[in-house]
Amino acid sequence: MIDSPMDKRIERRFWTKGRFLSVTSITVFVLFSIFALTRNGKTYRIDRRMIQTDSVRRGNFHNYISFTALALPEQKVFIEAEEGGRITEIFANSGDYLKAGEPVLSLSNVDLNLTVMSREASLSEQVNNLRNTRLLMEQNSLDIKTRIADLEHSIFVKERQLERHQLLEQKGHLAKNTLEESEEELAWLKNKLDLLERSSVKDSIYRATQIDQLEGSIVRMRQNLDLLRTKLDNLTIKAPIDGQITGLSCEIGQTMAKGQPIAQINDTTSYMLRGTVDERYVTQVTEGLSAKAANDGKTYSARVKKALPDVSGGTFPVEISFTDTIPAGIASGQSYRVDIKLGESREALLLPRGSFFSHSGGKFVFVMDESGNTAWRRDIEIGLQNREFYEVLSGLQEGEIVVTSSYAKYKDMDRIVIKG
């Protein structure tokens, strides 16, 4: 067939009305799907029996903190080996109650014993030297006194002789040179007496100094010997206070070095509690705050003895002392539940405690909707907390139902769909 020159070719359009409506419908559906997915977020489905819920309520918030503390003796003394040696005898076992001064174990130290024996021999020698020096001094003193007495007698005799010679010389019956010899001999005797007396004084001073030195040396030697004997006594290790001995694990024949720990004595008449508190309360927990300590169904009055601001691992240590009576049968290592009162009670919005807090940190919770079949994630703000409740500052309203069980499996979800 031959086309006529008057004929025109008609082209078909791509965007027909039907095709436009189809594409528009698909686009709207996709956008709606995206919106729905965005609105619903990530969803986790769980059986109703696997969760726990509780309601938000208004009531009095009792401002206290709770923590677990262990009983410890208020006074404990560590026992160390004051001298080294080998264990020869053990008198006590770990767990025994001892009186102050009772023996724990005994050591032997051969070198120390030999040193003591050597010092004792040296002291005995010095004492003998002192005795001999005193004896010699007395003998010398007696000898000098005898010699002085002899010279004084000789001088007396010579003076009388000189008087006779002077009378005879005056009468001309004695030669002058004989008189002069008598005078010279008398002068010599007097000079000799003077020298002997001065020598006696010097010798007495020297001997006295020597005795003082010997006595001083003996005093020092006795002091040193007393110290050594004290060291010997320290080889028998004794309980420093009344109490229960713990940590004693020694055997006969074992060698102990000087300063080596041996055991610990706990004073069983006075106990305290020690635990750790969250670092958020480091400025609130102070010495003197009233507290309660509970164990085995009984509650005891207590107070904060000491709060140490040494934060480590997110906590700081607190020491608690009993104010009235110490629990009967208390023992080191027992656990007590301690409540410290931080302030007065006040009305607040309360959320019961639950394991959810360990995963959300109190930053968010899952809140049930009206159907009771879906719980939505919601950001909240929590203030103080005690053993029973969290203080809700914002994000929740009275009467709302919150999932309080663990969020471990769905902490990153936006909603929970509850089945069953």
Structural commentary:
With 420 residues, this protein is α+β, with helices and mostly antiparallel strands. It has four domains: 43-62 and 346-419, conserved putative lor/sdh protein from methanococcus maripaludis s2 fold; 65-74 and 270-341, Elongation Factor Tu (Ef-tu), domain 3, CATH 2.40.30.170; 76-109 and 236-265, RNA polymerase II/Efflux pump adaptor protein, barrel-sandwich hybrid domain (OB fold (Dihydrolipoamide Acetyltransferase, E2P)); 110-229. 35% of the residues lie in helices and 32% in strands. It contains four helices and 24 strands. The protein has helices spanning 17-40, 110-171, 176-234, 357-360, and strands at residues 43-47, 53-55, 57-61, 64-73, 76-80, 85-90, 97-98, 103-108, 236-238, 243-246, 255-256, 261-266, 271-278, 290-295, 298-307, 315-322, 335-341, 346-352, 364-368, 374-379, 381-385, 389-394, 401-403, 415-419. A hairpin with a 3-residue loop joins strand 21 (381-385) and strand 22. Residues 32-39 have low confidence and may be disordered.
Summary tags:
conserved putative lor/sdh protein from methanococcus maripaludis s2 fold, OB fold (Dihydrolipoamide Acetyltransferase, E2P), 4 domains, 6-stranded mixed β-sheet, rod-shaped, about 35% helix, Elongation Factor Tu (Ef-tu), domain 3, single chain, alpha+beta, 6-stranded antiparallel beta barrel
Q: How big a fraction of the residues is strand?
A: 25-35%
Cα Rg = 53 Å
> What is the H/E string?
HEEEEEEEEHHEEEEEEEEEEHEEEEEE
The total domain count is 4
Per the principal axes of the C-alpha atoms, what is the gross shape?
Answer: rod-shaped
Which structural class do you get from the secondary structure elements? alpha+beta
**Major sheet strand order:** 1-24-20-19-23-2
Q: Distance between the terminal alpha carbons, to the nearest Å?
A: 76 Å
Mean pLDDT: 86
Q: Outline the low-pLDDT stretches.
A: 32-39
Helix content: 25-40%
- Count the DSSP helices: 4
**Main beta sheet strand tally, sense and closure:** 6 strands, mixed
Number of strands: 24
